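PROTEIN DESIGN WORKSHEET
SECTION A - STRUCTURE
LENGTH: 110
TOKENS:
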């Protein structure tokens, strides 16, 4: 991941509603959610939620799939993994065992 992409992802997550949307999509996992359902669960305005989803998608943190008239959104775990890898790229100054507690904490067992 390049610095500009990392900055876009961090900026996208640096806004409260977008962070809530991303965390919600991570929680629901592979089933994803329709934009309207995301807005409903977060008690947000639907068109504002759509704008936030567009920013998250542009940052590589969510992806969308059309199902007829509905667009379903999913957390893009590849994009998120790339961001984490970028942030930890120079971690531990050649002593990877120092990073192990962090890696254990972020390893998904699902």
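SECTION B - SEQUENCE
RESIDUE ASSIGNMENT:
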């Amino acid at each position: 991941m390049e610095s500009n992409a990392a900055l876009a992802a961090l900026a996208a997550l640096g806004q409260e509603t977008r962070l809530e949307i991303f965390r919600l999509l991570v929680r629901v996992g592979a089933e994803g959610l329709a934009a309207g359902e995301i807005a409903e669960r977060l008690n947000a305005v639907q068109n504002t939620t759509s704008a936030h989803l567009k920013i998250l998608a542009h940052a590589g943190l969510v992806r969308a799939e059309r199902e007829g008239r509905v667009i379903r959104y999913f957390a893009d775990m590849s994009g998120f993994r790339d961001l984490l890898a970028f942030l930890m790229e120079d971690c531990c100054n050649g002593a990877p065992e120092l990073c192990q507690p962090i890696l254990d904490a972020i390893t998904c067992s699902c």
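SECTION C - NOTES
The two ends are 25 Å apart (CA to CA).
The chain has six helices and three strands.
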